[in-house]
Amino acid sequence: MKVNSNRDISFKGFYNNKALKKSLEFAADYGAMFAATTTLALSTFARPAAIMLAPHTDKENKKFACAKSLASSVAQFILTFIIATPMGNAIKNIDKNPNKFLKQKTISNLQKTSKNLVESKNYEFATQLFKLGSGLIVSIPKAILTAACMPFILQKIFHKPKPLKNKEQPESNNINFKSKGSEKLSKGIGKILDKKWLQNFSEKYKDSNFVMHIVALTDALTTGTFIHEVYRSENIEERRKKAVMYNAGISTALSIGTGYLADKLMDKPTEKFIQNFKKANKGQPNLEKQLLGIKVAKPILIVGSVYYMIIPFISTILADIADHDPRFDLPHKKHKNLNKKI
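Now predict its structure.
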């Protein structure tokens, strides 16, 4: 039987799918928001399911782990939307009209031998630092908000009684984010892109796995802050803190390690996907942006799948073991009033 020589693009209909293309363009333009949306989808269903399926573990610890997952994803989505959306819009302004926001020397240094600026690896790297970096910016406030929202989620979803408050909780401040226009932000980003050190940095690391590095750094910073906030919280039951903290730490450590491994193993399949995508969409507008979207989406989807579908099952079991082992007890912390239950 004669094998069709074009079998590599037998899924041409899939590669031409409008939803796929729009998703890839969204990943290229709003990397941090793409990550937050993926996180929200996975942590709302997949992660809680994986946690609740963990065998021979404390049911209350499972509830706390689920509450953490839900609080974290909602906090990340809201904060990332506030920061990443204007950041992505500002970069798109520069994409469309680089001469308006960048010096000619900057354009030349970043474009190198590429046909145009947006296709340059140097420019892609430099602008993704801002797009994906917005996720890094919200990592600390996200972790603080996650720890603060956990008691509320436990009360509303898992019907646990209100915690005994040690002190009056301050009224939540209404933060007013007033947009001054994406063009002003574009000018600010343009001034940073004009810096020689950033251009040199982009030249040096343009071929690195920078998307994966930013994802890993964001997760590590978020988890470290979250553990600190849980430890010092007076609204989370003392005897539940250890399991929550170990679960978060184990989950992040395992997801980063396995994420890098899985990302490496997926290099060849991803490259094959890219080549088939190029063939199916040759000459189409926004092809370069869609190809960039593949590179951005790959580590986000890999880490997200590992962290929210596989790791929770393992980390919940390991955290429960650590919770019942006195060798892993937390340093003693005194409180004016001890919480009995939440």
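The first helix runs from residue 12 to 15.
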